[in-house]
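dumping this here before i forget
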Amino acid sequence: MDNFLLMNSKFLEFFTVDRLLQIVRLAILLLIGMPLLFLVGRWIKKYISTKFSAQQGMIISKVVIYIGMFIIFFNVLEELGFKLNHLLGAAGIIGLAVGFASQTSVSNIISGLFLIVEKPFEVDDLISVGDKTGLVLSIDILSIKLRTFDNKYVRIPNETIIKSDVINITRFPIRRVDINVGVAYKEDIGRVRDVLLDIARQNPYCLNEPEPLVIFVGYGNSSLDFLFAIWALKTEWLTLKNSITEQIKLRFDAEGIEIPFPHVSLYSGSVTTPFPIEIVEQTKKMSGQSSKQA
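structure:
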């Protein structure tokens, strides 16, 4: 009985009114404040993305969430009895040591700020960095995230982006499709040009402005080489490239225009007489060698 009364008294000493209020405040900060902060960040991201751009919405929402988490963290520490002035002093010393050890991270943060201000690309743009090509998923303080065409997740540090050549494939509303076309030397150049332009006019994905362009590039090893340049909306670029490539083959077959394959002719020195080549079957060679040995 005495032990029970002793435990009860200690329990009452620990759970005082002030201690219970402290627990309630911690519960409010962690169980209500954190979910509410993420809800506010999500709402800000959606609102800013609708009014301005997805990139600005993502950046502003993350800044709000980070600031809110910072405030909640220090409020929790204060409720637990930690002195903020001591913590800030220790944080200064630790921050100095971490700063020397994290120069790469600092460089990435500074590079990220340059990317945010300069805006060479935005979320949902298609870009190429080195040998990586993909859709921009996010632009963060330390890195950007891409999703490649084969659904791979790629993280590229911001410092690498600043130091590399970046190609924004979908920056402008239209893109050009360049198709290399080769025809046999016997074909008429003007007729080939007319057929290609007619193919472009009949393709529903090909834009009339800018006009399709057929350039005679030069004389190849086994063909007359042309560059067929046509324009499409950036959302229909791949559709146009696939469809018009098939149409060129079908139309050339219908028009009797030959698409040659590489071949080599050997000459003995005369302009018209080919170098004589005799093909001997392997069985005849074997029989000749066996007769000699006999």
